[in-house]
Amino acid sequence: VQLQASGGGLVQPGGSLRLSCAASGFTFRSYSMAWQRQAPGKGPEWIATISASTRTIYDDSVKGRFTISRDNAKNTLYLQVNNLKYEDTAVYYCVRVGTSDRGQGTQVTVSS
């Protein structure tokens, strides 16, 4: 199993990014997928989940600002992050729900 996140970067407060996660080694369309983030010195924080049937659920801290989506034809998970805040600074990871699979993350830094 491979989960490779990309799309992070340095952005000013209020800015936007689109994170991607390329998945391989399993039947992507059959699994719920999620995004987690981990800020320096803190534990992992769940952000959002999308089911195999594309039902979505979000943590309150990102609801209305972040959108999780998936493209099963491309085996890719997305996270559109808008109106970024300083406290969104973290490494963002994609996770295969129900397993311990968490790939290499992508750094998002919000700074002026």
Terminal residue distance: 37 Å
Structural class: mainly beta
Number of helical regions: 0
Q: Which radius of gyration do the C-alpha atoms yield?
A: 13 Å
- Poorly predicted segments: none
What sequence of helices (H) and strands (E) makes up the elements?
EEEEEEEEEE
Shape: globular
Q: How many strands?
A: 10
Q: What profile does the largest beta sheet have?
A: 6 strands, mixed
Oligomer kind: single chain
Major β-sheet strand ordering: 2-10-9-4-5-6
The percentage helix is under 10%
Mean pLDDT: 97
In terms of DSSP E residues, the strand content is over 45%
What is the fold's blueprint, element by element?
Blueprint: E1 2-6, E2 9-11, E3 17-24, E4 33-38, E5 45-50, E6 56-58, E7 66-71, E8 76-81, E9 90-96, E10 106-110
Parallel strand pairs: 2-10
Antiparallel strand pairs: 1-3, 3-8, 4-5, 4-9, 5-6, 7-8, 9-10
Short descriptors:
4-stranded antiparallel β-sheet, mainly beta, 10 strands, globular, 49% strand, 112 residues
